[in-house]
Amino acid sequence: METKNTATLHGRQFRLLIPTPQVQEAIRQVAREVNADYRNGTFRRPLVLVTLSGALVFGGELFRQLEGDFELGFVRAFSYGSGMESAEDVRIELSGAVDVAGRDVLVVEDVVDSGRTAESLRTLLCKAQARRVWIATLLFKPEAYRGALLIDYVGLRIEDRFVVGYGLDYDQAGRNLNAIYVLDQ
Ligand code: 5GP
Ligand code: MG
User: Fold this and answer.
1) Contact between 105 and 125 (Cβ < 8 Å)
2) Rounded to an integer, what distance in angstroms lies between the CA atom of residue 14 and that of residue 163?
3) Alpha-carbon distance 42 to 6, whole Å?
4) Neighbours of ion ligand 2 (CB under 5 A)
């Protein structure tokens, strides 16, 4: 598939920031790190918990590169706020089918911005008796991050700008773009 240099979503212009091969290499790198940790005995019965909907694309690509006994589950994180603001309130729904008690959980996120969502996920999973929680994110915005804990696996570090593509949306549009695009300002 040909990668376009620009994309228009809900009347706004986005331009190519990270081309597909670079995104794919970042995902391979995360997979290599997780696989190495798995071989070193870091995880016990790991459950990969993909945050819907944004991390579906990254999560799927990452998951099929994992080597070992990894299980797959999903969690929904809803943030309330306008299209481009990181929300103050984060609501998280763990699918009833997933029992995280006693499990080593690897949360897969699309982007860690302020870190509120990642923190809420950790808190919720710890309350649900997860044994340990790791976070893997495709994108990380160091300048925006306000969290206290390290993010365990980072695909790409980016500037504090609004991006779409590879699962990330602007008001539900643009998730299927096969590269990362940044809002043109
Ligand atoms: P945080 O809670 O770390 O501030 O933000 C995490 C969530 O905000 C992400 O999971 C995502 O839903 C949304 N978000 C933050 N930055 C971006 C961005 O640049 N683009 C998109 N599409 N969503 C973002
Ligand atoms: Mg998200």
Assistant:
1) yes
2) 8
3) 41
4) 54, 110
3-state DSSP call for residue 134? strand
Please give the Cα distance from 137 to 148 (Å, whole number). 16
Centre a 10 Å sphere on the Cβ of residue 142 and count the other Cβ atoms it contains.
Answer: 12
Distance 184 CA to ligand 1 centre (A): 17
Catalogue the active-site residues.
113
Q: How far is the CA of 112 from the centre of ligand 1 (A)?
A: 6
> If you measure from the C-alpha of residue 126 to the centroid of ligand 1, how many angstroms do you get, rounded to a whole number?
22
* pTM, to two decimals: 0.94
Mention every residue, 6+ apart, whose C-beta is less than 8 A from residue 138.
23, 26, 27, 30, 55, 58, 109, 110, 111, 155, 156, 166, 167
Please state whether 182 falls in left (phi above 0), alpha (psi between -120 and 50) or beta. Answer: beta
Does 53 sit behind a cis peptide bond, omega within 30 degrees of 0 on the bond before it? yes
Q: What is the per-residue pLDDT across 59-112, written as a single tens digit (0 to 9) for each?
A: 999 999 999 999 999 998 877 555 676 666 777 777 766 889 999 999 999 999
Ligand 1, residues at Cβ distance < 6 Å: 54, 79, 86, 109-118, 162-164, 168-169
